């Protein structure tokens, strides 16, 4: 989440200017697959299994994933890949405890981000 943008919104500032250049409206299936280290085929499969993933389809059926789709994929990825749940189990957890799944996925995402930053700092110190 772009907290700087969110803080600007809370303070009543205009959102017309995007300070975060990485903020995009749509991501391709290849970009999303690389974010999670999965194949495009797996994303298409999850799309069929989890109705909450609804990418827009442009001309010729090209999928365009929004941030909302990516957040949903993050939850599914956490439950299936990190926690080792079956698809049926993940589906049940998402239906029953949507908030818990959101919080857990966000915590894991933040911890991974912190780990990556610390690894970068470690590399810089080793120079």
Structural description of this entry:
The structure is a single chain. The protein has one domain: Multidrug-efflux Transporter Regulator, Chain: A, Domain 2 (Orthogonal Bundle). 64% of the residues lie in helices and 3% in strands. The chain contains 6 helices and 2 strands. It has helices spanning 3-10, 29-36, 40-49, 67-82, 87-96, 98-126, and strands at residues 56-57, 63-64. A two-stranded antiparallel ribbon has the order 1-2. Helix 4 packs across helix 5 and helix 4 (67-82) packs across helix 6. The two termini are 31 Å apart. The model is unreliable at 1-21 (pLDDT under 50).
Task: Assign the CATH class.
Answer: Mainly Alpha
Identify the strand order in the major beta sheet: 1-2
Largest sheet: 2 strands, antiparallel
Radius of gyration: 17 Å
